[in-house]
User: What shape does this take?
Amino acid sequence: MEIKKQIEELVLNAKNEILTIKTMNELNDLKAKYLGKTSPFAQLMSQMKTLSNEEKPLFGQAVNEGKNQIASLFDGFRLELEQKAIEEKLKNEAVDVTLPGVNFSKGSKHLLSKTIEEIEDLFIGMGYSVKEGPEIESDLYNFEMLNLPKGHPARDMQDTFYITEETLLRTHTSPVQVRTMLEAGGKKPIKIICPGKVYRRDDDDLTHSHQFTQIEALVVDEDVTIADLKGTLLVLAQKMFGEERKIRLRPSYFPFTEPSVEVDVSCGQCGGKGCSMCKQTGWIEILGAGMVNNAVLEAAGYDSTKYQGFALGMGIERIAILKHGIDDIRAFYINDLRFNRQFK
Amino acid sequence: MLFSLKWLKEMVSIPCTREELVAKFNLMSSEVEDHYQLVTATNLTVGYVKTCIMHPQSDHLHICEVDVAKETLQIVCGAPNVAAGQKVIVALEGAVLPGNFKIKKSTIRGVESNGMICSLDELGIEHKYHQEDGIHVLPESSVIGTNPLEVLHFDDEVIELSLTPNRGDLLSMMGIAYDVSAMLDTALTLKDIFVKEVKESNPVKVSTQTPSCKSYYARVIRDVEIKESPEWLKARLIASGIRPINNVVDITNYVMLETGQPLHAFDFDKLKSNTIVVRNAIDNETIVTLDGKTRTLVADDIVITDGHTPVALAGVMGGESTQIDQSTKAILLESAIFDGLTIRKTSKRLDLRSESSSRFERGLDPNRTLLACNRAAALFEQLANGKVLANVNSFENQNLIPIVVDLSLSKLIKVTGYQYSEKLVSNVLKRLHFEFKLQDGIFKISVPTRRIDIKTYQDIIEEIVRIAGYELIPTTLPKSAIPGSLTEVQKQKRLIRETLSTLGLNETITYSLTSESEAKSFDADEKESIQLLYPIVETRGTMRHSQIPALLEVLNYNLSRKAENVHLFEIGKGYSNQGETEFVSGLMTGVFDDSKWQGITRPVDFFVVKGVIETLLNKLNVDKVQFLPPKLPHPKLHPGISAEIIIEDISVGLVGKLHPSLSSEKGFPDTYVFEVDLKAILSASKPNDKMKEVSKFPSVSRDLAIVIDRSISAKQVIETLKKAGKKTLIDIKIFDVYQGEKVALDKKSIALSLTFQDNSKTLSTEEIDLLVSKIVKAIATELNGELRS
Assistant: This one.
């Protein structure tokens, strides 16, 4: 049939022409050329009326098929062009992802706060509450109720800043223990830790600071043992310094505990073999502890034939120094941001 | 406490090395501070100086021919005191002296020298112990070719204990021997004391008028010969850290080291009577002490008198008037116990801490007072040819009988958590030389008077645990089941720390003590400061009122180290006579965040700092916060760029720009600070208990620009709008503030975005129009403002 050939030719021409197209406008022009009012198809359709009734459907069908073929050709190509345009746009939008991000100010928590929080969380997990108290204390709570009457030689162990004869800057957080025991009225069991600032009349140098931070723990109950103290210390050492660490207790003396011990943790650098860090001993002293002296329990209203307890106290700076290899205790109080920002 | 290991070995069997003993001390007794060989020099020998001539090329060097038994060495020696006929210490070729000083063959100004003749300093014996200049001359009797360290008894080892205040017993060789015997489970080898007395009777009468003297024993020794002590005694004193002086003084020191009992020797002939009366001093009474200083006394001090005049400051220092000297012939020996507390006060007040005062302070064994007296008398007889007069004259007001402490095995187990056996406990008590009876599971322990620190069963438990070993005790955790948690306030404090550090501020911790002027430099109320009685330095003598001065110090430190963007906060206290107030304080300067390559930086200004505070308060569930111009401008802040922070009519803090005059004085860039009362904001924290319904109906926004007087604050605008818009107006945002040529000179334009929403219906355009027109009307009537055309 003549008409079929003619349409095939049109489709072929459209296919060839489409390949030369670059832009959407050209595509629209081409579409108008082939499918618009003056297109060859429009002309073909105008010939319809000259045909016989038998020929008309076949002719119409052939023309429509041709138109459809070209239309779908154009649609396909339109998608292709659109896709290309999107790709081009995205390509142009690409950024150098290696450029720096917005420089928000980098904040940090103080290393002492972080260390305190870490120790607090550890003890809270074991059922302790956190107790705080005043830093300006009475001689009574800081010393006398802790079995340290005036003139006691052990007062020399803690050189004190006095404000008046009877008030002072607390030398340890133990007065918080005293206050807690008094609040409990000598009846209830106690399981607390007391973090806070303390003060001693020391000259500041590499290892001394007139202000430092302590955490003390106190447990009072009917059956608290040295073994419980030892177990608690082991948990503390292993959580703070590493699961492989060991501890050992050595006899010591604090007026508020009896027996009193110094606690060593095995050296992390040499694993206990002896090195410069542990002065060849394999052990590093970390804190003092002991069983609460009955005199302290009784002064706070506890019946020492029924209740017993343990207490331990550590310097947070010392823990942080050992944990992070800090060589000067003053670094905690200078607040050089290059130091502070290392610990977030 | 320093002690000689050789000396200790005479008193207790020690079948182990020094290192092993040190380890035992650390784990069972007292911490070892240090331990060392007394003299580390090697390859020494006793030499005899055969000839000694001057070096021809030198005005001070000598050339000596020294016989060292195997050979005769030529040695060049620079000491002025070297002379022919002396026995001397020779460091042979190959010797190593302290300080890693190696002795080699050498040529000194053309003369060969084969070794060195040594001074005591060169052996490492500190000068204070011998005060000899030049080489040390050995006794005539020394054998050539033998080890001079043996001759001098310097072949010894020293251990230094770091004693805790309770272990006064370890301030004596006897006490240490007892503890070592327990530690090592070895036998004591203490020797008995025999005093050879003459017939003449001790004429001295002793008495006390003060209860501060508990006991006093006096002996008189005549015909003493004052001279140098024998080498062994001097060496032991040196090892113990005490300078040898003469035999009489050395013996008193030696016996003090041995027994722990301080002794004092008076020149008996210088005493004006045969009476010793101990009494309290009279206020303002004076005494010249052995060091030549005149001491003014107070009534708390104890003095030894001859019945009238003080001749010694009891327990602290002797008097000059009765001092032992080269011509002393007779001595009165005092062995006494004075009240520790009194001695402590006196020695502290006069700054006279001594070996003697530190022993009295810790307390003495009442059963060693007489023993020490006799031990010293015996030594005076042996080493000073003294004649010991018959009788010790004394008074004794102390309990010499051991106290008995009961400890049941069950109590021991209950306290320790370890199942000790009766056998183990008995064994430990035997090792400690504590006598005891065991009745029905109760140990009845007679505590020896040497252990005055032991008074209760807890003290006994410590003894058992340390000698049996802490390693025996198992590790368990307390059984009590008490829930642990932070209080709300503690949680909030952590939230503050978390929020501010997330917002880019660095937490600081600074000193509470500062100078008097800094302490209150940011305290507008001028509260009274808390000051130390005896500060170390005045710049750390007063407790701070505010944390801001410390933050400025931190700023200064960091600026001078090239930091530019300094954002700080601190959670801590201010202190005044009105108590301790906890603050959150902050400081910000420089750029808050920046992205320079994008052309965006946000310098810190008032509104950045205000935004930080608002974010923090929002996190803490604190609403109804107002920032208002301060009623009285804070002198350290910019009067126009500072605000009081008000919660429910109460001022809880301040925020503002540092006063430009202060900034320029300190060389700071624009700096902003804030300080809020932690308790006040936390008490205003109201967390939501119940959910508030979220409207299901859409919200509508309208923008308005109004022109008002410059003097009208944003707060006034917002309050007016809120009142007019009622609860349907759910949000007001200011998105532009303009003052300039497009509005009148005294006017400003504020652009606002208003959001309307109703919980029960969708608002119609008409309803919103009505609200907006009400709002516009309110602006006109209440603020005298109008819509910007």
Q: What stands out?
A: Chain A has a mean pLDDT of 92.
